[in-house]
Amino acid sequence: MITCVVTYTIDPKKIDAFESFGRAWIELVGRHGGVHHGYFLPSEGASDEALALFTFPSFADYEVYRARFGVDPEFIEADRIRDESGCVLRYERTFMRPLLPSDL
Domain NIPSNAP: where (predicted)? Predict the structure, then answer.
């Protein structure tokens, strides 16, 4: 199992657009073999940082999903929300292996 953690620097004035972007990707990850754990939006503290976490059974499964970027019309449309609104200023992906209570 592999979890992708995406750290976003967002434009806090465009949080509504970022939420629309997030809703689109939550649905797409679920339909393409992953489990989305949600987007975590600013509440207190830094107002320009957000996170997304989603899991795939393996890195190979994640790569199958990633191959759709720039090709699949739904993926292109979801990214268009980000690109046209300017809600995301920067993002960085990190891959982690979860240690869960069920692993104890």
Answer: 6-99
Is 104 contained in some domain? no
pLDDT in tens, 7-44: 999 999 999 999 999 999 999 999 999 999 999 999 88
State the residue range of the domain holding 7.
Answer: 2-43+53-97
Q: Domain tally for the chain?
A: 1
Identify the CA nearest to 27 among candidates 81, 63, 92: 81
Phi, psi dihedrals of residue 71, rounded to the nearest 5°: -120, -50
Query: Rounded to whole angstroms, how far apart are CA atoms 85 and 80?
Result: 8
Element (H or E) spanning 7, and its range?
strand 2-10
